[in-house]
Amino acid sequence: MPARARAQTLLVRLAILAALLGGVVLHGLVAIHGEVARFEHRSERLALLLGAVTHRALDTADALRTAAEAGLADPGPRALDRLRLLGPVPDQDGYGLVGLAPPARPEARLNLTGEGVLEDDPALHRELAMALALEPAFRWVRRAYPQTPWVYYISARGFMSLYPYLPFDRLFMSEAIHDFELYAKGLPARNPHRRPYVSEVYLDAAGRGPMVTFGAPVYGEGRFHGIVGFDLTLDRIGAYLGPEQGSGDRVYVVDMTGRVIAAAGPETGGYPASLAESRPALFALARAYQGVTKMFDGARVHSVQLDGVPWLMVHERANWRIYRYALLATLPLVLFLCVLLGAITIFVRERQRQRNRESERSLRRFRHLLDCSTDMIAVVDPRTARYLDANQTFCDFVGRSAPEILERRVTDLGGALGSTARWTRVLERVRRDGRLTFELDGQLADGRSFEVEVNAHHASTEGEEYIVTVIRDISERKRAETERARLQRALQQAQKLEAIGQLTSGIAHDFNNTLASIQWVAELARRQFGAQEPRLDAQLEQVMAAVNGARALVRQLLVCSRGERSESARPLLLVPKLREILSMLRSVLPATLEIVTEWPARSPTVTVDPIHLQQLLMNLCINARDAMQGVGRISVGVRLRHLEQAECAICHEQVRGGWACIRVSDSGPGIAPSVRDQIFEPFFTTKRLGEGAGMGLAVVSGIMRTYGGHVLIDTAPGGGACFDILLPPSAEVEPRSTPEPTSAERAEPVDIEGLRVLLVEDEPVILHHLKETLIGAGARVEACADAATALARFEQDEGGFELLISDQMMPGMSGLELVRRIRRNDTGIAVLMLTGDGCAIKQADLVRLRIAEVLLKPVTWDELAAAIARALSR
Question: Full-prediction pTM beyond 0.85?
Fold first, then answer.
């Protein structure tokens, strides 16, 4: 039996050895196949790289051709002016750019030479101007290809422009240049499809070595004018083969005649003159089997036709290199199998010993599993309340070592279970129900606060009772709940602003109509009786002032409720504009207030309406003045801020990223925490009755929502208040301001004598007084109380009206719909729209329906007259 057992063991070992040897051989074959596949992949990748290089060069030549053809169509006055610099070249039979001294560096400019006499031909002059205007394009090509010797334009009319500069004695235009391959390949006979091309390899006359030209024919008005192109040395093309130099592969780039354009790899020794001559069999195989790997002369050969150019890439790798790689790839496996066999032998000998240690390793693994858990796990003796075991996470959380934990009771570590009575009640529930989940908070011995969720399980083994507790830190969850509450506040704030906006819009419409009625009656009375009754004129002036104040209040309501972007918004440099606003505010603020400014060296730019920017700073400074009761310090500064996380005081959204920040702070009493969430609500104020309307910060809120900005507040009782106004920075440049019209220009009266006006207004008082005012100014007015009547009247007298003044919000048909129907039949009538609620009419509708302006009620006669003048002037 022992001999038989040994024989069986030997047979098993031989079978294992045969299987391992078979695996080694298979692995070697797979390694050879993989190396061949990688060789083919490198070939394809290199072909793609070279194809991309040639495509880029051809695209560059095509871009040069586009620039030249555009210059032929319109060379520009500057280029035409440079023609005066052309003249006869001494000691040469031709003309050139003699009006400029030779540059100190050739890269400074191009040179132009032509054979014969410069003819007075406009077409020739336009082509010469184009050739001179190509200098920026030539510079661009030279930057893209720093190693290119020359970029040039060769004209069929016997001249050429060349960059960088070459003196006349080194290169001058001659008829022989037209016989060069680089020019002849662009001629219509050889390039009927007018495509960019690459020339054959030639030797540069200036001694730069072998090179090729990437060129493109230039046509204008269907006629061939010449070619544009640039040279690339073969060294430049060969540089793209540099990564293959250390791979052991040989790579050739050849044209279809076998001439070598570039080569890399061992034993290439530079550029052989021709692959067809030095290795004709290899060249024939490469041409015959493109895209396929073939065995040839102890090597594998893979050839690829490059896309876009008549070039062939031949990639060759010696077989011994492939086999060496397979051997090296298989050697680790052989070593591994040898080690494995030794390990198996050792394993068999040590099997019994391993069994004895298995239980110990299992315990260590389980211990490691417990310690790696992100939850805290502890085992408690229910009789003594002592800890029997705890994982590392629990020890780290409590801040004590495992031996220290095992010496303590549950009641010793603080928290809600710090009392014996509470622990007893929890233990009773765990024993009764088998498990219990509850939340626990408190403070550890080192002063750290904690919030945890405890899952307690009752268990017993061999009569021994114990409690297993799984404890999870829920601080993050609590923070998430806090964040959810913040988002709820933000949603409530948005809903509140939406409701205020809808209410404000409805109130503004009716209130502005009422104000308009009062205003027109007052204006009409002043014009009729004010001159004869000074006291009545003064009283009516007070009525007008009250109307203007109410109108401004309504417009503030609309700004703080709608948050619509103003059409006057434009890029502004913050610092100069804020300086201008502060200089105006100094006359409003008392001398007992100190204004401190802090400006950056470079002012950020934001896109905002200057009026809105003025309202922002004015409202914040006036609030600061009132909070300090006119005595203290106001600081105004500008800077760029990058925020990782902050909460907007208006919308309660998280604010991150870069912002242009306007900081306004004061030395006042600060803002009480109880009112911080209300300060941006309309009509909310902490001032006494009659001292404020509560609209200042509400307007700030509306403006910030208009431009997607945010407000951060830093305040403490007695520590002042700091407002950070965050606006998105703009990359645009502030446009130059246009001069304001003079007072004489603004005051110029409008002549509407005999003007046919169609007036549409559903408010009877406004309709009456508008009609009377327009008639008093000499207009012929047709007044209608609704849009349907106005449309019918217009259709009866089509073409008779010159101006339409219509209210927007009317029962039955809106003013916008009335204009839309009128425009179907009439294109010449000027249109002004009136609105009582500032409702947003899309800019696209204003342009499409050719509405001159939209005026917000109440509107004064001066404003209406100016708007009529502008509308008629269009």
Answer: no
